[in-house]
Amino acid sequence: MNQPSLTTKRKPGFIVLEVILLATALLYLFPVLYLFGASMKKSAEFYEPLKLPHWYFGNYVKVFEQTHLFQALGNTLYICLVTLAINIIVSSMAGYMIGRNKHRYFQLLFYVFLSGMIIPVQTSMVPLFKLEQFLHMQSSLTYLCLLYVAGGIPYATMVYTGFMKSVPRELEESASIDGAGRFRTFWSIIFPLLLPATGTILVTTVFWYWNDFVSPLLYLDINHTPTLITLIFKFKVDRGVDWGPIFSICVLATVPLIILFLFTQKYLIKGFIAGAVKG
Prior knowledge:
75% of the residues lie in helices and 0% in strands. By secondary structure, it is an all-alpha fold.
Protein backbone atom coordinates (compact mmCIF):
# COMPACT_ATOMS: atom_id res chain seq x y z
CA MET A 1 0.00 0.00 0.00
CA ASN A 2 1.32 3.41 -0.92
CA GLN A 3 2.03 5.62 2.06
CA PRO A 4 0.81 9.23 1.90
CA SER A 5 3.63 11.55 0.98
CA LEU A 6 4.99 14.15 3.32
CA THR A 7 3.77 16.83 0.92
CA THR A 8 0.19 15.52 1.13
CA LYS A 9 0.26 15.47 4.92
CA ARG A 10 1.54 19.03 5.15
CA LYS A 11 -0.67 20.48 2.46
CA PRO A 12 -3.30 22.02 4.82
CA GLY A 13 -0.51 23.64 6.80
CA PHE A 14 0.95 25.13 3.64
CA ILE A 15 -2.45 26.54 2.69
CA VAL A 16 -2.79 28.21 6.08
CA LEU A 17 0.74 29.59 5.75
CA GLU A 18 0.01 30.97 2.28
CA VAL A 19 -3.15 32.67 3.56
CA ILE A 20 -1.21 34.26 6.43
CA LEU A 21 1.55 35.44 4.08
CA LEU A 22 -1.01 36.82 1.62
CA ALA A 23 -2.79 38.71 4.40
CA THR A 24 0.54 40.09 5.61
CA ALA A 25 1.46 41.18 2.07
CA LEU A 26 -1.88 42.97 1.68
CA LEU A 27 -1.36 44.65 5.04
CA TYR A 28 1.99 46.05 3.89
CA LEU A 29 0.58 46.89 0.46
CA PHE A 30 -2.37 48.87 1.84
CA PRO A 31 -0.43 52.14 2.49
CA VAL A 32 0.86 52.07 -1.09
CA LEU A 33 -2.61 51.49 -2.50
CA TYR A 34 -4.01 54.23 -0.27
CA LEU A 35 -1.30 56.61 -1.52
CA PHE A 36 -2.23 55.97 -5.15
CA GLY A 37 -5.96 56.14 -4.42
CA ALA A 38 -5.75 59.36 -2.43
CA SER A 39 -3.83 61.05 -5.24
CA MET A 40 -6.90 60.49 -7.47
CA LYS A 41 -9.42 62.14 -5.14
CA LYS A 42 -10.85 65.63 -5.28
CA SER A 43 -10.53 67.89 -2.25
CA ALA A 44 -14.16 67.32 -1.23
CA GLU A 45 -13.66 63.53 -1.21
CA PHE A 46 -10.34 63.43 0.55
CA TYR A 47 -11.70 63.22 4.09
CA GLU A 48 -13.74 60.13 3.22
CA PRO A 49 -10.95 57.53 3.48
CA LEU A 50 -13.12 54.52 2.55
CA LYS A 51 -14.58 56.13 -0.57
CA LEU A 52 -13.11 54.81 -3.80
CA PRO A 53 -11.32 57.32 -6.04
CA HIS A 54 -12.85 58.52 -9.31
CA TRP A 55 -9.64 58.69 -11.35
CA TYR A 56 -9.32 62.45 -11.01
CA PHE A 57 -6.02 63.56 -12.61
CA GLY A 58 -6.34 67.23 -11.74
CA ASN A 59 -3.97 66.80 -8.78
CA TYR A 60 -1.21 65.62 -11.12
CA VAL A 61 -1.85 68.56 -13.44
CA LYS A 62 -1.33 70.94 -10.50
CA VAL A 63 1.97 69.24 -9.65
CA PHE A 64 3.34 69.65 -13.17
CA GLU A 65 2.11 73.24 -13.43
CA GLN A 66 3.17 74.50 -10.00
CA THR A 67 6.49 72.74 -9.35
CA HIS A 68 9.85 72.25 -11.05
CA LEU A 69 9.36 68.48 -11.01
CA PHE A 70 11.63 67.64 -13.93
CA GLN A 71 14.45 69.79 -12.56
CA ALA A 72 14.20 68.03 -9.20
CA LEU A 73 14.03 64.63 -10.93
CA GLY A 74 17.09 65.48 -13.01
CA ASN A 75 19.05 66.59 -9.94
CA THR A 76 18.11 63.42 -8.08
CA LEU A 77 19.03 61.19 -11.02
CA TYR A 78 22.36 63.00 -11.42
CA ILE A 79 23.18 62.43 -7.75
CA CYS A 80 22.20 58.76 -7.90
CA LEU A 81 24.01 57.92 -11.15
CA VAL A 82 27.26 59.75 -10.40
CA THR A 83 27.47 58.47 -6.85
CA LEU A 84 26.61 54.91 -7.82
CA ALA A 85 29.18 54.84 -10.62
CA ILE A 86 32.00 56.01 -8.36
CA ASN A 87 30.91 53.79 -5.48
CA ILE A 88 30.68 50.65 -7.58
CA ILE A 89 34.00 51.19 -9.39
CA VAL A 90 36.02 52.03 -6.27
CA SER A 91 34.34 49.59 -3.88
CA SER A 92 34.40 46.61 -6.24
CA MET A 93 38.15 46.99 -6.82
CA ALA A 94 38.79 47.53 -3.11
CA GLY A 95 36.63 44.52 -2.18
CA TYR A 96 38.43 42.40 -4.77
CA MET A 97 41.89 43.21 -3.42
CA ILE A 98 40.89 42.85 0.22
CA GLY A 99 38.95 39.63 -0.36
CA ARG A 100 41.78 37.99 -2.31
CA ASN A 101 44.67 38.95 -0.01
CA LYS A 102 45.14 37.45 3.43
CA HIS A 103 48.00 39.76 4.39
CA ARG A 104 47.41 41.66 7.61
CA TYR A 105 47.81 45.02 5.86
CA PHE A 106 44.79 44.29 3.68
CA GLN A 107 42.83 43.15 6.71
CA LEU A 108 43.78 46.36 8.46
CA LEU A 109 42.61 48.28 5.38
CA PHE A 110 39.29 46.45 5.61
CA TYR A 111 38.82 47.66 9.18
CA VAL A 112 39.69 51.17 8.08
CA PHE A 113 36.82 51.00 5.58
CA LEU A 114 34.49 49.64 8.26
CA SER A 115 35.42 52.47 10.61
CA GLY A 116 33.65 54.79 8.18
CA MET A 117 30.36 53.11 9.15
CA ILE A 118 30.90 53.67 12.87
CA ILE A 119 31.20 57.47 12.90
CA PRO A 120 27.74 59.04 13.34
CA VAL A 121 26.72 61.30 10.47
CA GLN A 122 25.41 63.94 12.85
CA THR A 123 28.88 64.58 14.32
CA SER A 124 30.26 65.61 10.92
CA MET A 125 27.49 67.91 9.70
CA VAL A 126 29.02 71.17 10.92
CA PRO A 127 32.58 70.42 9.67
CA LEU A 128 31.23 69.34 6.29
CA PHE A 129 29.14 72.48 6.02
CA LYS A 130 32.21 74.58 6.85
CA LEU A 131 34.19 72.62 4.25
CA GLU A 132 31.55 73.35 1.64
CA GLN A 133 31.92 77.08 2.31
CA PHE A 134 35.72 76.88 2.29
CA LEU A 135 35.71 75.16 -1.12
CA HIS A 136 33.13 77.65 -2.48
CA MET A 137 30.83 74.78 -3.44
CA GLN A 138 27.65 76.07 -1.84
CA SER A 139 24.56 74.36 -3.23
CA SER A 140 26.71 72.14 -5.46
CA LEU A 141 25.37 68.79 -6.57
CA THR A 142 28.95 67.61 -7.06
CA TYR A 143 29.78 68.31 -3.42
CA LEU A 144 26.74 66.33 -2.29
CA CYS A 145 27.81 63.46 -4.57
CA LEU A 146 31.25 63.44 -2.94
CA LEU A 147 29.65 63.25 0.50
CA TYR A 148 27.50 60.33 -0.58
CA VAL A 149 30.54 58.59 -2.07
CA ALA A 150 32.45 58.96 1.19
CA GLY A 151 29.51 57.59 3.12
CA GLY A 152 28.69 54.74 0.72
CA ILE A 153 32.12 53.25 -0.01
CA PRO A 154 32.55 51.55 3.43
CA TYR A 155 29.26 49.65 3.13
CA ALA A 156 29.79 48.76 -0.54
CA THR A 157 33.34 47.55 0.14
CA MET A 158 32.08 45.32 2.93
CA VAL A 159 29.47 43.76 0.61
CA TYR A 160 31.97 43.16 -2.21
CA THR A 161 34.58 41.73 0.17
CA GLY A 162 32.09 39.22 1.56
CA PHE A 163 30.85 38.26 -1.90
CA MET A 164 34.39 37.74 -3.24
CA LYS A 165 34.69 34.70 -0.99
CA SER A 166 32.10 32.94 -3.15
CA VAL A 167 34.08 33.49 -6.40
CA PRO A 168 36.46 30.56 -7.20
CA ARG A 169 40.14 31.45 -7.41
CA GLU A 170 40.56 28.99 -10.29
CA LEU A 171 38.96 31.52 -12.64
CA GLU A 172 41.76 33.99 -12.00
CA GLU A 173 44.41 31.30 -12.31
CA SER A 174 43.02 30.26 -15.69
CA ALA A 175 43.00 33.86 -16.88
CA SER A 176 46.57 34.32 -15.69
CA ILE A 177 47.69 31.27 -17.65
CA ASP A 178 46.04 32.77 -20.75
CA GLY A 179 48.09 35.93 -20.27
CA ALA A 180 45.47 38.24 -18.78
CA GLY A 181 46.72 40.81 -16.28
CA ARG A 182 45.13 41.58 -12.92
CA PHE A 183 43.20 44.57 -14.25
CA ARG A 184 41.77 42.76 -17.26
CA THR A 185 40.98 39.68 -15.17
CA PHE A 186 38.96 41.76 -12.77
CA TRP A 187 36.87 43.67 -15.31
CA SER A 188 36.41 40.81 -17.82
CA ILE A 189 35.89 37.86 -15.47
CA ILE A 190 35.43 38.83 -11.83
CA PHE A 191 33.27 41.94 -12.06
CA PRO A 192 30.47 40.27 -14.12
CA LEU A 193 30.28 37.60 -11.41
CA LEU A 194 29.73 40.31 -8.80
CA LEU A 195 26.39 41.27 -10.34
CA PRO A 196 24.30 40.10 -7.32
CA ALA A 197 26.44 42.19 -4.98
CA THR A 198 26.23 45.13 -7.37
CA GLY A 199 22.44 44.77 -7.45
CA THR A 200 22.33 44.77 -3.66
CA ILE A 201 24.41 47.95 -3.48
CA LEU A 202 22.40 49.58 -6.26
CA VAL A 203 19.04 49.06 -4.57
CA THR A 204 20.05 49.85 -1.00
CA THR A 205 22.09 52.94 -1.82
CA VAL A 206 19.63 54.36 -4.36
CA PHE A 207 16.92 54.17 -1.69
CA TRP A 208 19.24 56.13 0.58
CA TYR A 209 20.12 58.83 -1.97
CA TRP A 210 16.59 59.10 -3.32
CA ASN A 211 14.90 59.46 0.09
CA ASP A 212 17.56 61.46 1.91
CA PHE A 213 16.13 64.71 3.20
CA VAL A 214 18.65 66.09 5.70
CA SER A 215 21.74 66.28 3.43
CA PRO A 216 20.07 68.12 0.51
CA LEU A 217 18.40 70.46 3.00
CA LEU A 218 21.76 71.30 4.60
CA TYR A 219 24.07 71.46 1.60
CA LEU A 220 21.77 72.58 -1.24
CA ASP A 221 19.55 75.57 -1.88
CA ILE A 222 16.15 73.92 -2.22
CA ASN A 223 14.80 76.92 -4.16
CA HIS A 224 17.39 76.64 -6.94
CA THR A 225 18.74 73.05 -6.80
CA PRO A 226 15.92 70.93 -5.35
CA THR A 227 15.86 67.17 -5.12
CA LEU A 228 12.59 65.26 -5.17
CA ILE A 229 12.36 65.01 -1.39
CA THR A 230 13.09 68.68 -0.74
CA LEU A 231 10.66 69.58 -3.53
CA ILE A 232 7.94 67.60 -1.73
CA PHE A 233 8.80 69.41 1.50
CA LYS A 234 8.61 72.84 -0.15
CA PHE A 235 5.40 71.89 -1.98
CA LYS A 236 3.81 70.80 1.31
CA VAL A 237 4.77 74.10 2.96
CA ASP A 238 3.28 76.06 0.06
CA ARG A 239 0.07 73.99 -0.30
CA GLY A 240 -0.83 73.64 3.38
CA VAL A 241 -3.59 71.04 3.79
CA ASP A 242 -4.38 70.57 0.10
CA TRP A 243 -3.52 66.87 0.33
CA GLY A 244 -4.50 65.74 -3.17
CA PRO A 245 -1.57 67.36 -5.03
CA ILE A 246 0.77 66.48 -2.15
CA PHE A 247 -0.11 62.80 -2.45
CA SER A 248 0.25 63.06 -6.23
CA ILE A 249 3.81 64.38 -6.05
CA CYS A 250 4.62 61.62 -3.55
CA VAL A 251 3.35 59.06 -6.06
CA LEU A 252 5.51 60.54 -8.80
CA ALA A 253 8.55 60.34 -6.52
CA THR A 254 7.76 56.75 -5.49
CA VAL A 255 7.07 55.11 -8.86
CA PRO A 256 10.72 55.06 -10.06
CA LEU A 257 11.79 53.28 -6.86
CA ILE A 258 9.06 50.65 -7.24
CA ILE A 259 10.11 49.98 -10.84
CA LEU A 260 13.77 49.74 -9.79
CA PHE A 261 12.96 47.27 -7.02
CA LEU A 262 10.86 45.06 -9.31
CA PHE A 263 13.75 44.70 -11.77
CA THR A 264 16.52 44.20 -9.18
CA GLN A 265 14.88 42.28 -6.34
CA LYS A 266 16.39 38.93 -7.37
CA TYR A 267 19.91 40.41 -7.29
CA LEU A 268 19.17 41.99 -3.92
CA ILE A 269 18.17 38.64 -2.42
CA LYS A 270 21.14 36.82 -3.97
CA GLY A 271 23.55 39.43 -2.69
CA PHE A 272 22.22 39.30 0.86
CA ILE A 273 22.28 35.48 0.93
CA ALA A 274 25.78 35.22 -0.53
CA GLY A 275 27.18 37.80 1.85
CA ALA A 276 25.58 36.07 4.81
CA VAL A 277 26.64 32.45 4.28
CA LYS A 278 29.95 32.59 2.43
CA GLY A 279 33.40 32.68 4.00
